[in-house]
Amino acid sequence: MRTRPAARAGQYAALLAYLVFLAFPFVWLASTAFKPAAELAGLHPTWIPQNPTLANFRQAFDEQPLLRAALNSLLTASAAALVAVAVATPMAYVMARHRGALARAATGWVVVSQAFPFVLLIIPLFLVLKNLRLIDSLPGLVLVHVVWSLPFALWMLTGYVRAVPAELEEAAAVDGAGRLRTLVSVTVPLLAPGIAATALFAFVTAWNEFFFALVLLKTPERQTLPVLLTRFIGAEGVADLGPLAAAAFLATLPSLLVFALIQRRITGSLLTGAVKG
């Protein structure tokens, strides 16, 4: 009993240290985005800008087409999230309700697919997109994002489907509803929170993705926001620090806002999947 307060204090200290570790890059990015050039070049950096300015934001918009790149990111991330959820929902229903060899194989695919790094996937994906004539196109990038986010979306939704009582589907079957009608009219409405969390998670993943967009998109007008940020770095590796920080700060805000909205549902989904799996 005497060690319990000390252990709890240690846990809170560790949690605080972890939160500081996570928040430090964003806080420093925000501070840099509002600093004038003179402060950025100073020998003694400060946490809080002494003379805050919006000049870095104006310069970032003047130098690069941030709005167009943001629109490309929005279109690809939204399309990828919608397609991933549309494909994963019926697959998750089958995996949750029919625990046979096919379901076990699909579960193994979900686990194994997460172990492959980007660099091993880009060559086969590039060849497939080349045969489909989707290189340097936003639809091709959407297809890649769907392939990459589908395993995790399937895992999340499978946990939600297993949390839905099977008795409700059996009652619908007694009333004469088929599998498709039961899925659409009974199961999917109960899965609404899980579908929303999965779609938003897929959206954030596609919004922040850099490697695939860098390799597959060559036309400047089609590039996404993460790729556009690299233009603030010169040929010799010297970064235009103020505009780069301002653009990166704006690009980070949507992800933070979305995660702030869905973090409880994502946590609930992970716990449900762990308990019901």
Strand content: under 5%
Would you report the number of β strands? 0
Work out the helicity level.
over 70%
* Main beta-sheet strand count, sense and barrel state: none
Cα separation of the termini: 35 Å
Order of helices and strands: HHHHHHHHHHHHH
Radius of gyration: 23 Å
**Overall 3D form:** globular
Parts with pLDDT < 50 across at least 5 consecutive residues: 269-277
Described by its quaternary structure, the protein is single chain
Structural class: mainly alpha
Let me know the average pLDDT. Answer: 81
Count of helical stretches: 13
Topology:
Blueprint: H1 3-33, H2 37-40, H3 55-63, H4 66-97, H5 101-113, H6 118-131, H7 138-163, H8 166-174, H9 179-190, H10 192-208, H11 211-216, H12 225-228, H13 241-276
Helix pairs in contact: 1-13, 3-13, 4-7, 4-10, 5-7, 7-10, 7-13, 8-9, 10-13
Keywords: Cell membrane, Membrane, Transmembrane, Transmembrane helix, Transport
Protein name: Carbohydrate ABC transporter permease
Family: Belongs to the binding-protein-dependent transport system permease family.
